[in-house]
Amino acid sequence: MKNDLTNKLFLITGGSKGIGKAIVEKFYESGAKVAFTYNSNQESAEEIISTLGNDTSRVKCYKLDVKNYNEIEQLIPQIEEDMGEIYGLVNNAGITKDGAFFRMQPEDWSDVIDTNLNGVFNMTKAFGNKVIRRGEGKIINISSVSGLKGSQGQANYASSKAAIISLTKTLAREFASFGVQVNAVAPGFIATEMVDAMPEPAKKKINSMVPMKRMGESEEVAEAVEFLASPSSNYITGHTLVIDGGLTA
Ligand code: NDP
């Protein structure tokens, strides 16, 4: 019963691949109804639905750019009309545009902040007013260990992820009396396309730095997000759960 998400509707951003895809699949397996978004990968989003058995009363995908507040304001009522009241939100969508600070262009900074941080603001703003009126719900934000420790070559990304942790704590305080928990996860190196794009020697170096000597799997992040979405975590709010094989220990 504890991790049972049966019939609760979750909205998951960036569900078309990587960690978001694993969260969509895990939540579906746990009995949830899932509305997830893609930005450019419509084909892979539709493939996920077909792999899950094409039950569109339980899983649907929608195109969304989290940078666009107007799109979000229209999407949320649309999802609720299609699938029912949204119980929880997982802010997963994110990008990187890495580079040493002195070479980082202003647009590299603003693209990452707009997507990773303003995207979380936009989604939470549009959803938050509804959920606090309902008196129960969960918001889970995907941060990163880069947001805890800083990360060379990722001034934009690390800043966006650190701000998400602060936003999580603040919203946890503001939403607590409305019965809504707000938590974050901070993954370390997880084997997704984002990390796959790195050269082999860089990947080897990462593995040697991690006390558990391997990268994490998307499914391992999804398990932690599921916990924070479930009744098992009902007295936890404002917390950032680190999933990094001991990297920041
Ligand atoms: P991927 O690049 O594999 O997936 C990113 C997802 O975000 C895709 O579904 C993509 O949609 C979506 N997306 C990108 N830009 C936008 C946008 N403007 N609006 C809406 N959706 C968008 O990333 P990961 O799975 O690796 O990462 C997922 C989250 O986890 C991110 O927040 C990332 O920062 C965080 N994270 C990842 C780590 C890792 O090691 N991989 C470590 C720590 C944190 P589409 O494909 O349709 O364009």
From TrEMBL:
<dbReference type="InterPro" id="IPR050259">
    <property type="entry name" value="SDR"/>
</dbReference>
<dbReference type="GO" id="GO:0018454">
    <property type="term" value="F:acetoacetyl-CoA reductase activity"/>
</dbReference>
<dbReference type="Pfam" id="PF13561">
    <property type="entry name" value="adh_short_C2"/>
</dbReference>
<keyword id="KW-0560">Oxidoreductase</keyword>
<dbReference type="InterPro" id="IPR036291">
    <property type="entry name" value="NAD(P)-bd_dom_sf"/>
</dbReference>
<feature type="domain" description="Ketoreductase">
    <location>
        <begin position="8"/>
        <end position="193"/>
    </location>
</feature>
<comment type="similarity">
    <text>Belongs to the short-chain dehydrogenases/reductases (SDR) family.</text>
</comment>
<dbReference type="InterPro" id="IPR020904">
    <property type="entry name" value="Sc_DH/Rdtase_CS"/>
</dbReference>
<dbReference type="InterPro" id="IPR002347">
    <property type="entry name" value="SDR_fam"/>
</dbReference>
<dbReference type="InterPro" id="IPR057326">
    <property type="entry name" value="KR_dom"/>
</dbReference>
<protein>
    <submittedName>
        <fullName>3-oxoacyl-ACP reductase</fullName>
        <ecNumber>1.1.1.36</ecNumber>
    </submittedName>
</protein>
